[in-house]
Amino acid sequence: MQNFFDMASIQDAYDVVIIGAGPAGCSAAIYTSRDELSTLVLEQTAPGGQMGVTSHIDNHPGFPETISGMDLTDRYHAQATRFGATLRQGICIDMKLREDGSKEIYIQDRAKPIIAQAVIVATGCAPKKMDVPGESKFWGRGVSTCATCDGGFYKDKVVVAIGGGNTALSESLYLTRFAKKLYLVHRRDEFRGTKIDQRAIETHPCVELVLDSVITEITGDSKVQAVNVKNVKTGAMRNIDTDGVFIFIGQTPLIAPFDKYLKVDKMGYILTNEYMETNMQGVFAAGDIRSKEYRQIAIAIGEAVTAAQRVNHYLRTRKLNTCSIDGKADKA
User: Fold this and answer.
1) pLDDT tens profile 60-76
2) DSSP string, 55-86
3) How far is residue 199's CA from residue 177's CA, in Å, rounded to a whole number?
4) Which of 96, 218, 231, 327 is an S-S bond match for 236, by CB 3.0 to 4.6 Å?
5) What CA–CA distances, in Å, run from 139 to 88, 151, 232?
6) Burial 199-220 (b: 16+ CB within 10 A, else e)
7) Strand pairing of 113-121 and 181-185?
8) More confident residue, 21 or 45
9) Predicted pLDDT at 100
10) Cα 39 to the chain's mean position, in Å?
């Protein structure tokens, strides 16, 4: 690996580097590139994040006939690149401020080092998986982690939800607006969510609780058709016919390596102010990686717009306050 602080090895320099090419990252890139800031978007895998592997998105403004996550990702990408943003596959291994007072930020990518005047972290989070047969096969095609995103596709159908915390209970209650039957599978004999949601779930006429149990397999041909369930106390097996599976067992923020420098909440999400500014000068955060209550595409877009505009303000302010070689402030 090249020396992180070797100036001779710096091969890329941008006004802003955006780390993550999901809804937040691409939206921020549209705004920064339209402001004629040289913009690089780094994405570890494929653009789109969780959105990119979602088969149908029904709650994005402007698409009354619904749209696939991949199609929406392509549109985001095309719009950002039309304004001049560069999207490159890569991963941020480390990120540090220069110590010479220049306020520039070094980003160590696996391919080559990058220098940035500002950074927007939009790495998002990854839903925790059960790691059972059939889960990956049907991921985004009958297996979901978002009731708000996909619940409407299961009107008058049967669904299975998994989990026992606040998210699992609230999302399951949301699904009852559509599903005619919901099985809630939880590995323990009591829930961890709020009492009011517990009572609502336990008394709901279309909900059947499957406690002390775990999913061992998701089965089907071209779509989800059933789940195999095991009682963890008795070992008894059960097969439940279902049209869809919703997994609510938590999410993992994709925070590394930023957790070494940025303040995070107790769950590992980045703390910012209302302008998406982190505790590190020149570094902003937007989207699902940010500490907040709700995580939706529309929310990520709004945060990205705020972050991008704040980056523009930050860089413009810095330019006005730059110093000439003799140490005196340049005139604006």
Assistant:
1) 888 888 888 888 889 99
2) S-B-SSTT-TT-B-HHHHHHHHHHHHHHTT-E
3) 17
4) 231
5) 25, 15, 25
6) ebbeeeeebebbbbbbbebbbb
7) unpaired
8) 21
9) 58
10) 20
Per-residue CA distances from 122 to 26, 111, 113, 157, 283 (Å): 9, 20, 19, 35, 11
* Three state DSSP letters for 137-203: CCECCCEECCHHHHHHHHCCCEEEEECCCHHHHHHHHHHCCCCCEEEEECCCCCCCCCHHHHHHHHH
| pTM recorded for the entire structure | 0.72
Q: Is the peptide bond before 205 cis (omega within 30 degrees of 0)?
A: no
Q: 3-state class of 213 per DSSP?
A: strand
- Rounded to 5 degrees, φ, ψ at 311 are -60, -45
Tokens 């999901």 label which residue? 22
Distance between CA atoms of residues 209 and 203, nearest Å: 10
Work out the pLDDT band at 2, boundaries 50, 70, 90.
very low
Residue pair 94/4 in contact by the 8 Å Cβ criterion: yes
Distance CA 226, CA 133 (A): 12
Q: Which helix (H) or strand (E) holds 285?
A: strand 283-285
Q: Count other Cβ atoms within 10 Å, centred on residue 75.
A: 14
